[in-house]
Amino acid sequence: MDQGIFRQIENTVNDLRSAEFNTFDRHIKKLSRLLHSETLEPISSALIADVDLDAWIRSGEATQGGTVGSATLEWPSDPQKELGLVILLIDRFAQIPDAAMDFSHTFYYAGNKLTANVQNMAAQMIVPFARDYIEHVKTATGTTEATMLPVRSGPAARKVFIVHGHDEGARESVARFLEQLGFEAIILHEQANQGRTIIEKIEAHGEVGFAVILLTPDDIGGMKNSDDLQPRARQNVLLELGYFIGRLGRARVCALKRGDIEVPSDFGGVVYEPFDAGGAWKQALSRELQAAGFDIDWNIAMKR
Question: What contacts 24+ positions apart, CB below 8 Å, involve 71-77?
Fold first, then answer.
């Protein structure tokens, strides 16, 4: 099995997580083509056999109450049929772009904006599908080489790096919230130096499987000879953001952005979640952790 196909699926799924309304169509079509590529077509065809997508959707629509977004989907207990349903959905979205908008509005409602709905659908449905689909392919083909897709991790791997600037309040808020969820927060400045560089400190914690990057307005900057200076994160924080994207993969990195600051425009697929005073960032971070394969206690995550 060509490992490159796995990486292409991962990258496309991460693009979908941050896709705007006008770019979703391109990425979903690419994902559909990958699932039906010469390598994967036999496996995908077997998964969609005897799966009735329309009957399943109608059953979910029948649960719609008086509140928008109250409809729920009854997922089959057979994991292969679940994979088959999502493959058929992806194919339909690729053929009929409006179908994705309607489906996400009904079952993954996140507000009045279409983009918010499709991004929520991508995070809650397509990301877990991609992880489980690749594991299914690896099992079916005897492939054992690890990929960068998120996998379910046990309690021993519940460790998260926190990369931060000068905002100690933001750092402590994130660290305490992660601890409430049962994670160990690894804050680099609290780790003994022992003559090591920052990168060497990171490498010493090879078992850490997720990173939270706090982008806070600690510096200002702009174009040379320009008086228009904008708040931005410290340069070392941006360096470590890029490092973790390369080391862990985009699906295992969550960037929390405080205020209106400049962010890198060339880190494709990275989702910048607002670090708001109201605490909605806690649910956003919890969704990212869950999408990466970690179990989340939503009773704790929903507390403000």
Answer: 71/106, 71/107, 72/107, 73/107
